[in-house]
Amino acid sequence: MSRPARAAEGLALALLLLLGTACGSRLPESDFENRSTPTRQGGTAPIRVGIVTSATSPVGGSAFTGPRDGAKAYFDRLNARGGIDGRRVEVRLCDDGGSGVGNNECVHRLIDEDKVVALVATTALDYAGAPRVSHARVPDIGGQPIGPAYDTYPHLYGIYGSLAPRDGTPGWGGKLYGGTEVYRYFKRVHGARTAAVVSYNQSASAAYARLVTQGLKAEGYQVVTEQVDFALPNFRAAAADLKDRGADLVFDAVDTHGNAQLCKAMDDVDAEVIAKVTNVQNWTSTVAEDYKDSPRCRNALWATGSSRDYEDTANPAVREFRDATKGFGSHSQWQLEGWAAARWFADAAKSCTAAGVTRACVDAFMNRGEPYTAGGLLLPVTYERLAEPPTTRRACLSVARWKDGRGWVSQGDMNSTCFQVPQLSYRP
């Protein structure tokens, strides 16, 4: 069985959005009504796809570019090897600037003007154009679920799958569900019993911290909550308290800069933990630089996700990704997931070559109900439409630990690191 959408991953990214500046207003869907019938891309013409990325945004220029870069690298290699049935894949990029207005403009340009067959590896801070994409029946393949769009609309297929009805309302009646597999893993495999959750005294941060706390308590943890001032955070006091209270694990609801400060404070007070747990967005090769002032905490960093560790080059699918991206200045898990999204589209398009690569044919491949793994890069991804949310699910996870000199080291096989866990509700 495929694992459910991760509440923690999605809300961690939403938190990043909310801790930044305002992201612009949304244009009504009627401004971009679809009045034309999509044309078939046939013959020897290139197969055109679009990639929407918040490449420039209020939270920094490089925060969301990983999936785009990974997807583009896949298409470059695919084209070098002859494309799809002899046809090149032509990639049209659009930077939405991290705003809803910009996102709608990108969607309008790519769908109505460039006539793309599909969107791939969408990574948008404010996916305001999602209703327009769904209305036009354009498949959006392998996007990052920063908001609830991939659990709301048909024809949108996020990189982690969905079990929700996707009838225009997020999840089930406005509620999304996520499992407690991350907390179960550290409790069962590493014997953790006490966990600290560090947050800002800011609404988005506090809401995310409550979600993490809810999951930890459901798994029987003693939970230590630490809240710091958003404007003038005293991370040293929080670190000292979580040390005194014997925290085994540290989870956080703070931004990347705050994380680095928290780690430094933990080193300063000699706080030793089993794991300082982070999410897939921070699963990058820049850890040594980002946490240069906190070697002890740095080597206690663990990341969890739903894709195979980009450092696991013993795996042939990972090795292919790394060979194609050897010129990158740094690597990240989001790059690998963008590569997997592009492969997903390519597999869908290859299934359509006999009848023609159309939006409808690609969408039919996505909707066929079979789990997809991108050659083993992803935990099996499934899109179903369940009338009622599951109360429990068998959920698997990919786990890696940072070690200086070695980078991220995989911890067991992701396809067998699985637990039957409860599904907890939250509102996006």
TrEMBL record:
Entry similarity comment: Belongs to the leucine-binding protein family.
InterPro entries: Leu-bd (IPR028081), Peripla_BP_I (IPR028082)
Source superkingdom: Bacteria
Record's keyword terms, sorted: Signal
SUPFAM superfamilies listed in its UniProt record: Periplasmic binding protein-like I
Organism annotation: Streptomyces siamensis
Acyltransferase in keyword set: no
Protein name: Leucine-binding protein domain-containing protein
Domain Leucine-binding protein as annotated: residue spans: 46-403
Keyword Signal attached: yes
